[in-house]
Amino acid sequence: MRFEGVLGEHEPDPRLELLEQARRMPVPVIGLVPQPHLEDWGAIGVASGTRDEVLESCEVSLGYTLWRNPDDPDDPVNLAELDEPQRRALEEEPPWPRPQWLVGQVQRMRYPMLWECVRTRWSQEPGGAGTVEALLVAHVNHVLVNQFQDAPPVDERCVEPRIPVVVDGTPRDGFRIDTDPHVYGVATALGARTVLTAVVPRDALPYVRVVFESRAV
């Protein structure tokens, strides 16, 4: 039996195509260092710009599942706060077979997510992506508007300079936004063409080491 408007059981995982796009970026993708409370399961977002088939800019975002008690995945403390309609939607089984990658992603929706947490932005032109401060503000506002819809936006007046940000074991001069009640953000330049930004929900901060390293894709 076929069902219109639904994914087939053998539909390919869209992350595979996103990984191929991410591999085109000529600089390393940066992520949080491996740590017990975060699971890096390949949640990735990619945006790029080309001119005459030449890559001009690329942006790769990484997300993580948060485990408050990583030693016991079944501990209810690990569950996300969901309302009744959300819980009901996750528990309903559709009358058609789904690809395994989709089943896995639906299961992960039961747990808190650090959505688009770490972002690496590269541009062919030095400074072409904008200032570090502007990119940090944009990333924070992107998370706020998608995850905390009632939160007011931040601006560059919220950015604090001269904050050490550790990448691949080396402290770098960076920036942070530590004024928003919902999220905490940091950023640093990785050369003239690359900027790292990261945004972590405040309720996840006690479980997260905000330290970064290059990540294979």
How would the blueprint of this fold be written?
Elements lengths: L13 H9 L6 E4 L5 E14 L2 E13 L17 H8 L8 H9 L4 E11 L8 H16 L11 E9 L2 E8 L5 E7 L4 E8 L10 E4 L2
List keywords for this structure.
single chain, 217 residues, alpha+beta, seven-stranded antiparallel sheet, two-stranded antiparallel sheet, 4 helices, globular
Global shape: globular
Determine the strand fraction and express it as a percent band: 35-45%
Number of strands: 9
Number of helices in the DSSP assignment: 4
Distance between the termini: 37 Å
Mean pLDDT over the full residue set: 92
Topology as H/E string? HEEEHHEHEEEEE
Q: What gyration radius follows from the Cα positions, in whole Å? A: 19 Å
Kindly describe this structure.
The protein is an alpha+beta fold and 217 residues long. The protein has one domain. The chain contains 4 helices and 9 strands. The chain has a 7-stranded antiparallel β-sheet. A two-stranded antiparallel ribbon has the order 1-9. The longest helix is centred in the middle third of the chain and has 16 residues, at 132-147.
